[in-house]
Design brief:
Blueprint (H helix, E strand, L loop, with lengths): L5 H7 L6 H12 L9 H8 L3 H10 L5 H15 L3 H8 L6 E2 L5 E2 L2 H19 L2 H12 L4 E5 L5 H14 L3 E3 L4 H9 L5 E6 L6 H12 L3 E6 L12 E4 L12 H18 L1 H16 L4
Parallel strand pairs: 3-4, 3-5, 5-6, 6-7
Antiparallel strand pairs: 1-2
Length: 293
């Protein structure tokens, strides 16, 4: 399943459109995704063009007609909310390995899965905007800022992975509490110098969007890791990292996100420099003294 959105495709093809068709495309992008489901006449009126121009725009974008463009968006929205059960029922179970002439079990899907993972990681890194990566490093290495991390059903593992590394070489790193009273208190204390890092992937969790909203309302900064379909929390973020989730199973892969997290950790440590090194040595000394390692 392609993880490129219709909006991405429209942006890529803007240069191929005539000036009038480009007006249509910008109307679609400005109100995306709802605008795509408007009538041809309504879109034409908003773009100040004729109805045939809207139809030509759809054709120039690679669709047989405007209904075909709308169908593509419906498929995208279905993918955005797809569950593992839906993906399993769509793709079916994996095939068992076969035995070669020597009786050894072979599994040709291993090579296929390796190719999928390589491509997903490569695409993820290629799509990271350098200035956004630098902004995230700057925010996470600023000793004046507190860092808060939170994830979802599965992505809390990524949030903790990031947070546990940061605690090794900088102060003021906190995890979103699990219990309601503590969580409420935690969110009440969000402030201007805070950086909130959220992981939110499809079948998005409403509380992540609320946390992003609260953080921005208090003047803080927000970093969001999400999939190509974009968590609603991304609308409130200062930095958005979009990672690919394509895998050989019904479950989304978090491998590209993990690889990006590790790259970010390395860059933050390098940015902090000697102070980070000293903090690492102090942490290890305390851990040894207390018998934790």
């Amino acid at each position: 399943m392609s993880s490129t959105t219709l909006a991405d495709e429209i942006r890529k093809r803007l240069g191929d459109l005539s000036p009038a068709e480009r007006k249509v495309a910008r109307v679609l992008l400005a109100g995306y995704p709802a605008a795509v489901f408007e009538t041809v006449a309504t879109i034409a009126d908003r773009a100040s063009v004729s109805a045939p121009t809207v139809l030509r725009c759809a054709s120039r974008l690679g669709f047989k007609g405007f209904p075909d463009l709308q169908a593509a968006l419906r498929a995208e929205l279905d993918a955005r909310t797809a569950s593992p059960i839906t993906l399993y029922e769509t793709s079916g179970p994996s095939r068992p390995g076969e035995r070669d002439e020597s009786g050894q079990t072979t599994n040709p899907r291993l090579a296929t899965d390796l190719s999928v993972v390589r491509h997903a990681v490569s695409q993820t890194f290629e799509e990271v905007a350098p200035h956004e990566f630098d902004d995230a490093v700057h925010l996470l290495s600023d000793p004046r800022r507190r860092v808060h991390v939170a994830g979802g059903r599965f992505t809390h593992l990524l949030a903790h992975y990031l947070g546990l590394h940061l605690t090794q070489f900088r102060d003021q790193v906190q995890f979103l509490p699990a219990r309601d009273v503590e969580r409420t208190s935690f969110l009440t204390q969000l402030a201007r110098r805070d950086v909130t890092v959220l992981f939110d992937y499809r079948r998005y969790e409403a509380d992540k969007t609320v946390i992003a909203e609260l953080a921005r309302e208090r003047g803080g900064k927000v970093i969001v890791f999400t999939d190509p379909w974009l968590s609603p929390a991304a609308a409130h973020a200062d930095v958005v990292f979009t990672t690919q989730v394509t895998s050989g199973s019904p479950y989304d892969s978090l491998t590209p996100a993990l690889a990006l997290v590790e790259s970010l950790v390395a860059a933050v440590l390098e940015s902090i420099g000697e102070k980070g090194h000293e903090r690492m040595k102090l942490s290890e000394s305390v851990a040894r003294r207390t018998g934790l390692i």
